[in-house]
Amino acid sequence: MRKNIVVTGYGIISANEITPIENLDLEDFPFPVGEIKLTNDDLKCNLNIPIEKQIGRTTLLGISALRQAAENADVSDKTPGRKILISGTTAGEMDLTEKYWQDINNHADVMLHHDCGSCTERIAEGLGFINECTTISTACSSGANAILEAAEMLEADNADIVFAGGAEALTKFHLTGFASLMILDREVCRPFADNRAGLNLGEGAAFLVMETEQHAINRGAKILCYFAGGGNACDAFHQTASSPDGDGAYLAMNNALINANVTPDAIQYVNAHGTGTVNNDASEMAALKRIFGNKMPIIESTKSITGHTTSAAGAIEAVICIQKLQQNCKLQNVMDNSFGFGGNDTSLIFSRCKSESNADCYNNDIETEVVAKYELTNEDEIAEIKEFLKPSEYRRMGKILRSSLLTSIKALKQCNITVPDAIITATTLGCWENSEKILDHLTEPQPTLFMQSTHNTIGSNTAIYLKCHGYNTTYVQGSDSFKRAMRKAELLIKSGKCNNVLVGLHNETTQRYRDIMHLAGRDGLQPLISLSVVVKRKNQ
Amino acid sequence: MENLISELKQRIIEALSLEEVKPEDIDSNAPLFGDGLGLDSIDALELIVVLEKYYGIKLNDAAQSKAIFKSVATMADYISKNRTK
Known about the structure:
The complex is a heterodimer of chains A (540) and B (85).
Chain A: E1 5-14, H1 40-47, H2 57-72, E2 83-88, H3 94-100, H4 116-125, E3 132-136, H5 142-155, E4 161-168, H6 172-180, E5 204-212, H7 213-218, E6 225-234, H8 247-260, E7 269-271, H9 278-292, E8 298-300, H10 303-306, H11 313-327, E9 333-340, E10 344-351, E11 368-375, H12 391-394, H13 399-414, E12 422-426, H14 432-440, H15 447-451, H16 457-466, E13 471-475, H17 481-494, E14 500-508, H18 511-519, E15 528-537
Helix pairs in contact in A: 1-2, 2-4, 5-11, 8-9, 13-16
Chain B: H1 2-15, H2 41-55, H3 65-68, H4 72-82
Helix pairs in contact in B: 1-4
């Protein structure tokens, strides 16, 4: 029997209306946002953090939500057990990087906290008793993937209490980036409406406190609801567009239903991804129709209230789902959809009552082995990508996208696998070369670069080429990223979700980045690391 | 117009990193999107950037660009009528 996972608390900070931007100095920016009307100094004050301490807004929002969650679930430093934090973010402390970028050599220390993993570690420090941090960065589904991972970690007995969610502050980097994609609405967004004209970006953070039912009972915690199950799939269609039939969204919802062992008619409410863009809403509605047919539950998008909080969205909307369960006793099962760039799609199901599910039951007796390994030894090798791809396919790919795809193809060839069951990526900075170019010309539209600036661009690029719709996620935890990715491969195989997993470690730096890091006292960074391995279930 | 068309072909190749394509490979009247060069929605956004950067034309709605970007000829025609630089 699979362990029952429960939610025993949550913390949330978000906007509750769409307004013109105030806290970021973006002159004449015509698009309204879901902005929390507290300055960074206000947030520091509320958190008892010295005003002079340099700390990014994502981190401040994260600490606010995390402390609330711990208090709500009655978890403190005195609570026994292994307590971990799984947080989704993409912007991290980009607000500080972009603020100092033009004079970064004199503010090199800022770059020590630029990577998303560092942001999560600083959020954890703000609570004070976290034993391990994991950062997931799958763009707009990051928060949902963090919650799904929390359940997987608890089922595998890898933790006693998990804080899982996401945090994202508004930054010029992604505001101008989304503007360059021409998908921002000048008015309050209208998800699923015929006259919808785009999305409103937002900011916020939310964390759930999750544990096994037994653990919650043992420590006398109040159970708010059950985490019934979740599904992760990749649309494998395009870096920024969703497929017309919503393949990834359909698979994510279907996997979640199987994982939770409930039928579509048992779902009464869906908090949709519903961004308000023409493309997302059409694709998601097509997928919803495939799942629910003519028996549609209540479909709602709350993004016209909070804005699209990107990496935090899955977690903020999970809290809204749980509040719905608490407030409306007619609801039994609710669904939370979150879809990201690259087609990283995730769906979660929360329930009032415990479910009896044996789907994807974790089995520690299943053994795994590495059956293939390919590492790029020389940057000149990257040109070999031309043997596998047409010029029109690789024309937009930067160095790391080409190298990661090449090593993936070569590793898969070694073990005769055409399409792996899952693609798990580890990276510290993602497509840093692109991010650096965007930072240099922050106010100019650079759609291609922005589309390829998120960390999950690497894993979804591989999925698009391989047409791999399987589980797809990305870890950004500094030098621990690869360890997290390998652990995930093992989790997926031992829970029976996959038989084989493609795992990649892909890092790129530029000379400029290495020079800045040298000034900050960190040396020995490699220009490029691209390693792909295939992990497989051992035959009994 | 001929000059604008050949200039435009060069700018399209640069903006969309069409390394393997030569200006003479692009038929001025052939569809830019769909099967032709294999362009997609992101390429359309890059072409919108080209309109603004080189010809001072600002489009606020990506859907508006569909008719303009039908072919190099329609693009040149639109630019010649609306350019501010």
